[in-house]
Amino acid sequence: MRKVSLARMIFNGFVSISLPFTALAAEPPSCPRADGKLTADALKTVVITQKDHSTVFDGDRFSLSLTLQSILATAFTPKTGSPIPVEQQKALASSHTEQLALLTSLIRSFRNLDRSSNGVTNNATFRLHEAELEPEALLASMKPVGLFNRFDLAPANWSYCGEHRVVYAMGTGTNRMFLIFEAAVDNPDPTNAEIGCQRIAEFWGGLQSKPEGELPDALRSFYYDGELGDGKPPITPVLHNQHFGVPFGQVRGNLFLTQPEGPGVIPWMLREWRTFPSAQSVTTLVPDTVKSNPNPELYNDDPINLAGNGRDQGFVDLRAEFQDKFVVSHVRELIDVDLEAALQGRKPTGDELFNQLSAAFDDKFNDFESVSQGSADVVRGSSSLISRIDHELMKYKLPTGWTLTPEHILARAEALSCAGCHNLTQGKEIAPQADIKWPNALAFTHINEKAELSEALVNSFLPARCDNLQRFLRRTEPTVALSEPSSEVRTPALAKTRLSVTTFENAITDAETSTALSELASDIQTARQQDSVTAGAFRRFRRTH
């Protein structure tokens, strides 16, 4: 009879749900603070910035070229029967030319605007100056500004150990661009659920006491070689092709190239891509939906311009379905923190709301872009939706003296989007308490070109991530016996995706390659859809920020 942790049982439905690594309000912080902010050593366990740790980024240690080289090299499969030696094949597959080709696939997405999700057309907006980018200039201009530990984004089934990110930036003022490589790192020991991810957590936790001079080699080895410095075999490197969309993980862009028109003409926008092979390249960057980002038009009843984005009746039909699901499911999800507090006879704190708010938005409702400037993506509910939210709220026993309104709920939903968290929701009330307003970003970003961090990160998000990491590391969970063996955490959808990758790599004829790519695309979509509604290890549902 196999022993499994209580946390694992909780998330498999055997026990009423309770997040194992999220503290009750009464539990004191796990990470040391100074003036309410993490100490410098504690901060190292969740973020490494170029401003505070410049030697980590010296030379080409985390250059964009090196990162693209790693992604390409790990996507490469030797061709049998080739007269070219394997090592030379690999070098050519990740060469400077191929790095430019990979960036070119991203740049083309700014002018190739056709987009569809679940059979519904919803084309992208033309981005003139991003479409005009030269890949050589982009490769040279993008500089690394930060490494982020997002262990807190691990799913409850622990199929991967959260995300581990590298942020690149270029430009200044009103002509700027960021690329964020968000690697969903495979669980190194998938048969052991959360224990399988412990080595990765220990790596980040160990940075707190690591001397500054040891940080550069330790972090580079982790990201590019999978070395954790614990004397055990390496894991799959962070910057591996499969961690950026095969099937989990992604690359995101924060876009603000506006010259010469200026910021009033071309708005600040966020987009998302994932890696995917083609018959000609070992991997490409293909556009994907922006997660936790339902199209804002689905909330209201304004006329939908079908001609504007190549939309059809299928997009119009999503509105009624989305609003029904929002009332029936998402209102409950968006007040989960309040209800947990009510059970404890108290009101939720601002930090609890800022860090634990979540909702399981179905990917078919997500847009392909998130506009964080102007009013286009401000969440405005129709009068009918507002009335229905108000009626739904009456069903729940909230904390005494804690009257939530539909406006609070819509602000919370907006805050979960990229545009909301980066700009639109800052300063908005998300609770019936004047001082609980969504925290401020840093002029559309949470880290800028100077590697400065936003108020939201410094005061709210980073301390909570650090606390979660430390509680995970020092947990003392009971174990209980199950009558049936527990399955490996590599979910069927994930396993099928990886099998489809092998099928593609072994394809010989053009017909076999075409069929394998089609099956792989379908398997990735299924796995990502399932993951988007899977509970998180540290919050009910996960979000990108």
From TrEMBL:
Alphabetized UniProt keyword annotations: Signal
Secretion signal span: 1-25
Top-level taxon in the UniProt lineage: Bacteria
Name listed for the protein in its UniProt record: Cytochrome c domain-containing protein
